[in-house]
Amino acid sequence: MSKPRPSVQLLLTSIFVFLLFAFPALADSKARVVRVSDVQGSVEIDRNNGRGYEKAFMNLPITEGMKIRTADDGRAELQFEDNSTLRLVPDSQIEVPKLSLRDSGAKVSTIHLLEGMVYVNFQGTKGDEFTLTFARESIALTQPAHLRIGLGDADAAVAVFGGEVQVTGPGGTVNLAKNQTGRFDLVEDSYKLAKHVEGDPFDAWDKQQNQYQQRYADASYSSYSPYAYGSSDLNYYGSWYDLPGYGQMWQPYFAGAGWDPFMNGSWTMFPGFGYGWVSAYPWGWLPYNYGAWNYVPLYGWMWQPGGAWMGGYPLPVFAGLPPGYAAPRPPIFPGPRVIHVNGGAGSKVTQGLFTRIEIPNNSAGLGIPRGSINNLPHVAGLAETHASVSSGLHLPEVMSTPGFYRSGFGAPRGSAWGAHGYSSRTRSSSWGSRGFGSSGSMSSAHSVGGGGHVGGGAVGGHH
């Protein structure tokens, strides 16, 4: 089979997307974008646009100056270009005062912990600088390290799980090695060193997420992407194909005949750029910031790497469309800050004596906790044959409360240790409660159901 050539209109659209989104990023060589890679429960984000806190959701891009906070049932994960991660437990808040790029290409990241607790897994990419600050203390990371920072009203603790960490503050400098903890008195400006690490209930969650990233990390990501983040999700939630006339193509599991890549997500307003598409799928970072979607006969929708990196403010880009397909278009500006598109069903988690998940064939992984099913290709095959598949899930203790399933598109990622008992079906530590509310985010979010896309202010259907 031969690779179809994009039409002139689609080619011009791709050029326009490149000019609109790539050039501003190139003009400011210090601009960087990192990813909100997981959102569970109540999480809010201040996007530094003068509107205060709004509801956060997966795959939002993070830029310099933004803030994130979690409620007493919320957790969040930030993923950096080299797969370094920062995770917030409930009742925590951070700000991102610096995300820049030096002339040498080295990435400079600064995260300030305002309250609560975070886990940091820094990959230690050569030349990169990663700084963590809390109160008047500072940690500068240049080598791989895995640590936990907890901040109270008058004290703080830094526990090191791997690597070496140096903490500098008014009370002096302390070097912490693996399995050591530094306890800081923020009133007296003093510290104590403990040669052990006390466990926390959220250690298991952090460990599981690290194991997921390590197991599904792609050492060859540079063959198709300029960045590593998002590659683990591609390997877990889908499969690569080498198609004659097309080359390397990727497709998510559970992508039935009626699925298309823009069924679920949000049109989100980005100051200075207009509307960009934010995917709701747990793997939906890399395929929407790079490359193009191509409809391949007998295969359906597939993602093809290549082209220009769009800097986290993407518009839909296609290399081939099926006959009669109404391509999604951004809404007319101005409009609501967030417009949700909910065109397809996701997986459903039910909790009782045994926790189970039901996965429809057209869900494309929506709602499947990451790493929770060991043999996802096999389960996808059952869903294709029987329209849906049901599987049992075993949840860690910290995930067993119903509150962790209250928000988002389906069940959270990372909420299960494993899966067992496949069956096919023929039919389709807390730091105190803050109690904050949403800063008007619900009034600015509109929803579009039934598989429609917003195009020029009107709703267009799938064909």
Structural class: mainly beta
Mean model confidence by pLDDT? 81
Distance between the termini: 24 Å
Radius of gyration from CA coordinates? 22 Å
Number of helices: 5
Shape: globular
Quaternary state, please? single chain
CATH class of the domain at 34-210, please?
Mainly Beta
Q: Report the portion of residues in β strands.
A: 35-45%
Which segments are poorly predicted (pLDDT under 50) over 5 or more consecutive residues?
1-29, 400-463
Number of strands: 32
CATH fold label of the domain at 34-210: Jelly Rolls
Please estimate the helix content.
Answer: 10-25%
The description of the largest β-sheet is: 17 strands, mixed
What does this structure look like?
The protein is 12% helix and 39% strand. It is mainly beta. Among the domains are: 34-210, Sandwich (Jelly Rolls), CATH 2.60.120; 348-425, no CATH class. It has a 17-stranded mixed sheet that branches. A four-stranded mixed sheet has the order 21-20-25-30, with no helix packed on it. A four-stranded antiparallel sheet has the order 26-27-28-29. Helix 2 crosses helix 3 (231-237). The longest helix is centred in the N-terminal third of the chain and has 20 residues, at 8-27.
